[in-house]
Design brief:
This protein is of the alpha+beta class and 101 residues long. It has a single domain, classed as Trna Endonuclease, Chain: A, domain 1 (3-Layer(aba) Sandwich). The protein contains 3 helices and 4 strands. A 4-stranded mixed β-sheet has the order 1-2-3-4, sandwiched between helices. The chain starts with 6 loop residues before the first helix and ends with a helix.
Length: 101
């Protein structure tokens, strides 16, 4: 695994870009409910996104395989990011979404 595919690297790039978009990517840790995605991203216009960041090749935990579909069923956008390419796609989607309003 290279540095560009580590969870730490991907999270840093995500938070830096979200900040440039005038948003905030909070490290999300819920002690009373396990399996929540790593980051809760708040963007201008009241937009909320969730991102689960994984090192390349690292699978979701069993609880995450339950919680992520549940969040999606509630209408939230949840993205699993484990490569630089997926991160760039996600960031482009955020940017495009902000430009359409």
């Amino acid at each position: 695994m290279t540095n560009t595919e580590s969870e730490k690297y991907l999270e840093r790039k995500l938070t830096d870009k979200v900040k440039k978009l005038k948003g905030k990517a909070f490290k999300f840790w819920c002690i009373s409910f396990t399996g929540m995605p790593d980051r809760m991203i708040l963007l201008p216009g009241g937009r909320i996104r969730f991102a689960e960041i994984k090192s390349t090749g690292k699978p979701l935990k069993p609880r995450q395989k339950i919680v992520i579909p549940w969040l999606r069923s509630l209408g939230f956008i949840v993205t699993v990011i484990d490569t630089v390419e997926k991160l760039n796609e996600f960031l482009n989607e955020l940017e495009n979404d902000l430009q359409t309003t």
